[in-house]
Design a protein that fits this description.
The protein has 272 residues and is mainly β. It has 2 helices and 20 strands. It has 2 domains: 113 residues, C-type lysozyme inhibitor (Lipocalin), CATH 2.40.128.200; 145 residues. It has an 8-stranded antiparallel β-barrel. Strands 11, 12, 13, 14, 15 and 16 form a 6-stranded antiparallel sheet that branches. It binds calcium ion.
């Protein structure tokens, strides 16, 4: 019996070793694909450049102002950093913002990916607004000096809003229409194969103070976003700082890219 146990033990050890080796072998055979070979364009204001990564992302080709630069990955404490062989060209991306330095001059700074959610089209107050790097300016009527300015405010929440497994983004935009009002809108951008698709804006209020944007923790809520903000009571003037905490629960309807308002505690309210 003892011999049989030893024999079985050896068979198991050999089998584990064989499969472990095979496992390692198959991992090594697969190329490490970290980035697509398609160029990625970064934009800020009227400046833009594109970068194409090699298959395993150890090299990158930057195209800027009609010139091409070949860079190699460099060690970086944070973000991705690529440097040319002679050190004269540096590309650095950190937290979604990229910069390009050529011969000691920062030629592009604070650039974001073109086709990202800061470049999507949103429906604000019934009008289509195409953001470019988080900003849009249009005339109230053609030739008018009064401008409608829509801009990315922030407070983004990266989460899957439509349940397809890809992260989308919920955040806040502001719009000024020439008067003293600053209107805050809750918007979403769906992450699709064709890029980000912007939603309809939900008006949170005029000159409110946005707080956190979170995934609702209510057990009955699925993909519901809670926008928190401070507002004024009806009898307070606009000069009073907003101090009343409010929350709105919104769920994106992907079919028409509109927000649906979700009752914060439907169960409690219906149990009267
Ligand atoms: Ca999604």
């Amino acid at each position: 019996m003892k011999n049989i146990n030893v024999f079985i033990g050896i068979v198991i050890i050999v089998a584990i070793g064989y499969f472990a080796f095979r496992g390692n072998g198959s991992v090594r055979e697969d190329p490490v694909v970290m980035n697509t070979p398609d160029p990625i364009t970064f934009v800020t204001g009227d400046q833009e450049f594109s970068i194409t990564y090699s298959e395993n992302a150890d090299r990158a080709m930057v195209e800027y102002s009609g010139m091409e630069y070949e860079l190699e990955v460099a060690r970086s404490a944070s973000g991705a950093r690529y440097v040319s062989a002679d050190g004269s060209v540096v590309f650095w991306e950190h937290q979604g913002e990229a910069m390009l330095e050529i011969e000691g001059v920062m030629v592009v700074e604070g650039a974001t990916v073109k086709g990202g959610y800061k470049d999507a089209t949103y429906q604000i107050n019934g009008e289509s607004v195409q953001l470019i790097n988080g900003y849009s300016e249009s005339e109230v009527v053609p030739g008018s000096a009064t401008k409608i300015v829509t801009r990315y405010f922030g407070n983004e929440l990266v989460t899957d809003l439509d349940g397809d497994g890809d992260d989308d983004v919920a955040f806040i935009l502001t719009q000024e229409t020439g008067g003293s009002g600053v209107f805050y809108y809750a918007v979403a951008a769906r992450n699709t194969d064709e890029g980000y698709v912007g939603s309809d804006g939900y008006l949170l209020g005029d000159r409110i103070a946005p707080q956190s944007v979170e995934v609702s923790s209510h057990p009955r809520h699925v993909n519901v976003v809670m926008f928190n903000y401070a507002d004024r009571s009806r009898d307070e003037s606009m000069s009073t700082p907003p101090s009343i905490g409010k929350s709105v629960y919104l769920k994106l309807v992907p079919e028409d890219m509109q927000w649906a308002i979700v009752e914060p505690d439907f169960e409690g309210e219906s149990a009267l």
